[in-house]
Every structure is written in structure tokens, then in C-alpha cells.
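FAQ: What does the model actually see?

It sees only this:
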Amino acid sequence: MIKKMAAIGDRDSIYGFVSIGLDIFPLDRIDNPAQTLHHLAQGDYAVILITEALAATLEDEIDKYSHQPLPAIIPIPGVTGNRGMGMKAISKSVEKAVGSDILQDS
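And it is asked to produce this:
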């Protein structure tokens, strides 16, 4: 089975992903972002990019999938700027894998 990739967030932040073949789900076209995330996660999507602003509002929903290998739900900066959520998520995963945060600033 071929897995797909998706991006969910504000239109300006995710529209460019169409050009590389991702399915996009702009907030102005969906009624319930949490429900859309669950639908994507339970479907054929291996990677779901989600803008940091939206990820901040859906942290509990995203955590439901953190112990599963797929889908990978990856926060990305939006047009409003970088909140550092992506790096925090990577750091947390590395710490879990090796037992220490080897990425932290000294």
C-alpha cells in the first residue's frame, strides 16, 4: 500500500506543498481540525505536516499518535514565524531514544 503525505494549517503556510505532491487541508476548508487530523492519521497518510500554530491548539490530539510509528506528525513553521515546536519535538524524541537530551544548548 502506498502511503501519502498531507499538510494541515492556514492556507498561506501550506499551499506550496501542493507542488511537491502533498494533499493539503487548509483551515478555511475544514470545520473541525481535530477531526481532520484523526481522519488523516487513521487513513493512508504516513506523514502529516501541521503548522506550529495549529499544533499548539491540538497538542492532546497529536499526543495520541506519539507512540505509534505512523503517522509521523511534524510541526512546521507557518507564515507567522517559527515557535520552535519542531525542534522541541525532535529533542524530546532523541531524549526518549538515547536517554539524554544530546541536542540541548550548552
